[in-house]
Amino acid sequence: MSIITKKTSMMTGLIMMMSMGAAYADNDAGMIKQTKGAVVIERGEQRLDAKQGNRVLVSDRVVTGADSSIGITLHDGTLLSAGSNSTLSINKFVFNSTTNAGELDASLKRGTLAVVSGKLSKTSPNAVTYRTPTMILGARGTEFVIEAN
């Protein structure tokens, strides 16, 4: 194998790895800042123990147990705090850090969720939605608490 062929092969591999990393980054919504008690992330068929520093991905479902809670910071600066016996799903998260535009769609199936809005709700107020089994809330750059029983 010639040196040129080896370099071409290495470059092809590097480009493939970079494109896979970009796909992963597009799915990355934020990071767990704190947990208390029993908290799991349901990611497809996996159930992962939620720990400080873990990434939260689009389509993750966060489930807290009794006397448990979790704090999540999304990439636009939105702060999500789910209380005991809560089920929170990140349905969609798209954020352009240059323009601060994008979209956030999250669902609270049960429990409580405290929200401090980030850049998305300030620059794209019609693009931020929180859902519960009985209502849909559009956020317009504020702080609020949602409860779903």
Keywords:
2 helices; twelve-stranded mixed β-sheet; alpha+beta; 12 strands; 149 residues; Jelly Rolls
Give a written overview of the molecule.
There is one protein chain. The protein has 149 residues and is α+β, with helices and mostly antiparallel strands. It has one domain (30-148): Sandwich (Jelly Rolls). Helix content is 20%, strand content 48%. The chain has helices at 3-27, 119-123, and strands at 28-36, 39-43, 46-49, 55-57, 61-64, 69-74, 79-82, 87-95, 102-116, 128-131, 136-138, 143-148. Strands 1, 2, 3, 4, 5, 6, 7, 8, 9, 10, 11 and 12 form a 12-stranded mixed beta sheet that branches. The longest helix has 25 residues, at 3-27. The chain is globular. The termini are far apart. The model is unreliable at 5-25 (pLDDT under 50).
Find the CATH topology: Jelly Rolls
Q: Alpha-carbon distance between the termini?
A: 65 Å
What does the largest sheet look like?
12 strands, mixed
Overall structural domain count: 1
Order of helices and strands: HEEEEEEEEEHEEE
Which second-level CATH architecture applies? Sandwich
Q: What form results from the Cα inertia axes? A: globular
Radius of gyration, in Å, reads: 18 Å
Mean pLDDT equals: 85
Q: What oligomeric state do these chains adopt? A: single chain
Roughly what percent helix? 10-25%
- Structural class comes to alpha+beta
Report the CATH C-level class.
Mainly Beta
> Helix segment count?
2
Report strand %: over 45%
Number of strands: 12
* Poorly predicted parts: 5-25
